[in-house]
Amino acid sequence: MAQQIAVLRGWHPALAMAELAALLPSHNPTISESNRLAKLEGELSPSKAFETLSISSGCQAILLNGFIHNWQNDESILLEKVEKYLQNNHREGKMAVVPLRIEGKLSQFSSSQIAGKIGGMMSRMGWEIDLSNPNNRFSVTIDGSSSQIACGWMVGDESGSEGVANRKATQRPFFKPVSLSPRLALLAVNLAAGPIGNGPVIDAMTGTGGFILEAAATNRQALGIDLNSQMVEGSNQNLNWLLKQQKISESSAKIVRGDATNIAASIDKSWVGQVRGFVLDPPYGRNSQGSLNHNDLLTKTLTSAHQVASNKANLVLIVPIDSMPAQINSALDNNSQVDLLHGDWDSLQQLMKTSGWQIKNRWIEHVHGSLSRLVIHSEYVPLN
């Protein structure tokens, strides 16, 4: 049975899966036997698929009306399925067959030979082949680690290049070594805010502005807040650089000087109760709020966010932890303990709960030998 299949990038498939669920909530993504192939429920238009891919950090391509084949060391079975599929899924215009390998290799399988045979099949059906400028691309996506092959009409870039690659933190005019990578910043924004048009996203401790730059690049309503005037000036330089580089003539993204513990004072009154996403990467190396200790600062910031949030809001908090082994294919188990570099996990969990944020999931992003990051996804819950 034909279905929609998302091809996830390899840097962190588990986070990519969570991002996909946030961007396409009505399609209920579920992972297949492959950690890089997700199934989507219902119909998905090419325009919606393209829109999702244009803002996604973790999704590489979407195969429309496709199917997943379990490789059995017999190409004739696959080719028979493809032929039947093409007979029932006619497309107008020029065609190309695109082989895409995402993990490992398959025994007794040549992607180029399979692509050639499918191209020949199309020619015999009377379809015109044009590899340089096709109207339609039929993908054969191979995951050798799970022996799965996904086939379908591809939307996206089979080269695997990412738009965020041109927005590296080191290229910005105002840069600090602790800046998040654009791909993680973009994913956090999408995870917190969901589909475009859902509502505003706020970073109450914006620092160098990484989250707000990614929000601006995806044409979201966004506001960055920082009490440090130097950070506000520098992050605005970064925002102007981004808008010029991306050739964005107008943007509703802004960065202002303000207090993270009183977000309501920095936002338009129309935003109160409408903010759908919050992203936080607290500045642990400096106390941006004067005499407040770290836990008090975070508690007051989370409470302040809750006061202006929509009752459907999500919040993504990123905190540094002691280095842990890479765990890119699944979220952390609820019972898994982590060693925070600042404070302890039980205290953090409790202060989030008392501030009105219920933790949904946690993931580990490995940074280097002595540092990892804990990505915490939480949702708004009413306070008694």
Secondary structure: elements and pairs:
Elements: E1 3-8, H1 13-23, E2 30-31, E3 37-40, H2 46-55, E4 59-70, H3 75-88, E5 95-103, H4 111-124, E6 136-143, E7 148-156, H5 182-193, E8 201-203, H6 210-217, E9 222-226, H7 229-245, E10 254-257, E11 275-280, H8 294-308, E12 309-321, H9 345-354, E13 357-368, E14 371-380
Parallel strand pairs: 5-6, 8-9, 8-11, 9-10, 11-12
Antiparallel strand pairs: 1-3, 1-4, 2-3, 4-7, 6-7, 12-14, 13-14
Keyword list:
14 strands; 2 domains; VC0802-like; seven-stranded mixed beta sheet; 384 residues; Rossmann fold; alpha/beta
Strand content: 25-35%
CATH topology grouping of the largest domain = Rossmann fold
CATH class of the largest domain: Alpha Beta
Low-confidence segments, given as residue ranges, are none
| CA-CA gap between termini | 47 Å
Range of helix content: 25-40%
Number of strands: 14
